[in-house]
């Protein structure tokens, strides 16, 4: 069979990489190319302009697999060894050349590289590291690099990836050990967690060394992340939230990504026939933010779930929690603590900070709060202000119906 052209392989391997959601770049360091040194700057060097987001940078990445050949047979994976898909493979040099050429054309500012497992996990990991090494050491590439590491590889190889990559990640794949055993028989939950723990220790040691030694080498400065597939097994949202809280607490992850299961061609009989609603993935991201930025404990997020253990789809988890614990409300916007205000549905972190700043100078009315939010209708049942008390509104039996977003049919041509 004739070898596919470079362009054909790029199409195959870029399409195969689309199922990995964990490729955000926030939190990385900024390398400068000022003075004519290096290339691929992610900072404002001569002739380069970037727009920065509050949590880092917004940069475009070349997102591909080194190969979609794989010796593993994970049921949910389109690239599993029993899958009838067209296969392709790049060499490390080819990926490096593609990255540099795309950068020179101003298409990208970084690389996200993953791979199926060929020959062995360690052999594949060596190929991924070689790609990053070519970019960093031979071409002085200073753009963003995210390497998807392989937990089954030798620990020294996994650790070495952090010397070249801004971010490293290891996918836990599924939220429960039983689900992983059933759908990914070649993978081990303990092995994945051990690799994540080793990376976490290496990142922490590198940060400590950087504080004490000026020229200590950087090691994965953007930290590590992971991804969980939602809806491929019977795990509920409470199972997923519990797993995410353990991952954040045990391995100091930068992010946990959630990816709704998508049916694949020639799927195994053990997989569901339909994908879960995409809104379920969205609700899990909202619950993730509640734990990371709003002070909610994992158990409190789980309390927002329905009887089946899943978060409601028609309302967000913060509102679901508030409706279940109405005795917590209303809170006085002029007296409540920051932690209490963050529990109010419809109030974000920025709005709460603005309320706290504004009330130092005057007593707030409902109209003052309305100027800081998108919809004061959602907030009124849960707050008190100088000229507003919700009286019986908070305890109305139909409050959920009143506050749930209205379902509307979108038009293609409005």
TrEMBL record:
Keyword DNA repair appears in the UniProt entry: no
SMART domains xref list: Elp3
Cofactor(s) listed in the protein's UniProt record: [4Fe-4S] cluster
Xref: InterPro entries: Aldolase_TIM, DNA_rSAM_put, Elp3/MiaA/NifB-like_rSAM, Endo/Exo/Phosphatase_dom_1, rSAM, rSAM_sf, RuvA_2-like
Source organism, top-level taxon: Bacteria
Xref: PANTHER family: ENDONUCLEASE/EXONUCLEASE/PHOSPHATASE FAMILY DOMAIN-CONTAINING PROTEIN 1 (PTHR21180), TYPE II SECRETION SYSTEM PROTEIN K (PTHR21180:SF9)
Entry keyword Phosphoprotein: no
Protein name: Putative DNA modification/repair radical SAM protein
Keywords: Iron, Iron-sulfur, Metal-binding, S-adenosyl-L-methionine
GO MF annotation terms: catalytic activity; iron-sulfur cluster binding; metal ion binding
All copies of domain Elp3/MiaA/NifB-like radical SAM core, residue ranges: 60-287
Cited Gene3D superfamilies: Aldolase class I, Photosystem II 12 kDa extrinsic protein
Species name: Altericroceibacterium indicum
């Amino acid at each position: 069979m004739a070898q596919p052209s470079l362009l054909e392989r790029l199409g195959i391997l870029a399409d195969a990489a689309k199922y990995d959601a964990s490729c955000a770049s926030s939190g990385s360091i900024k390398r400068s190319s000022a003075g004519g040194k290096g290339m691929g700057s992610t900072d404002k060097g001569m002739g380069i302009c970037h727009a920065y987001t509050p949590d880092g940078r917004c940069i475009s990445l070349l997102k591909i697999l080194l190969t979609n050949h794989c010796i593993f047979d994970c049921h949910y994976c389109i690239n599993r060894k029993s899958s009838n898909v067209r296969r392709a493979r790049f060499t490390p040099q080819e990926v490096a050349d593609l990255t540099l050429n795309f950068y020179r054309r101003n298409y990208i500012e970084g690389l996200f590289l993953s791979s199926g497992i060929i020959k062995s996990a360690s052999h594949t990991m060596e190929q991924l590291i070689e790609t990053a090494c070519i970019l960093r050491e031979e071409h002085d590439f200073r753009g963003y690099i995210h390497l998807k590491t392989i937990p089954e590889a030798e620990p020294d190889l996994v650790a070495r990836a952090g010397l070249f990559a801004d971010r490293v990640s290891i996918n836990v794949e599924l939220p429960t050990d039983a689900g992983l055993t059933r759908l990914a028989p070649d993978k081990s939950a303990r092995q994945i967690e051990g690799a994540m723990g080793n990376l976490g220790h290496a990142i922490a040691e590198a940060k400590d060394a950087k504080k004490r030694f000026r020229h200590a080498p950087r090691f994965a400065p953007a930290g590590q992340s992971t991804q969980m597939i939602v809806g491929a097994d019977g795990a509920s949202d409470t199972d997923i939230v519990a797993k995410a809280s353990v991952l954040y607490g045990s391995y100091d992850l930068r992010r946990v990504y959630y990816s709704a299961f998508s049916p694949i061609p020639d799927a195994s009989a053990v997989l569901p026939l339909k994908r879960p609603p995409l809104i379920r993935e969205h609700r899990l991201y909202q619950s993730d933010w509640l734990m990371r930025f709003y002070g909610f404990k994992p158990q409190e997020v789980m309390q927002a779930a329905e009887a089946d253990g899943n978060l409601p789809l028609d309302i967000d988890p913060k509102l679901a929690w508030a409706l279940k614990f109405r005795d917590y409300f209303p809170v006085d916007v002029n007296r409540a603590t920051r932690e209490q205000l963050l529990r109010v549905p419809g109030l974000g972190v920025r709005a709460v900070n603005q309320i706290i700043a504004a009330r130092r100078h005057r007593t707030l009315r409902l109209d003052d709060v309305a100027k800081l939010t998108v919809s004061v209708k959602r907030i009124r049942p849960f707050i008190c202000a100088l000229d507003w008390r919700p009286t019986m509104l908070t305890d109305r039996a139909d409050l959920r119906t009143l506050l749930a977003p209205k379902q509307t049919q979108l038009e293609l041509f409005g």
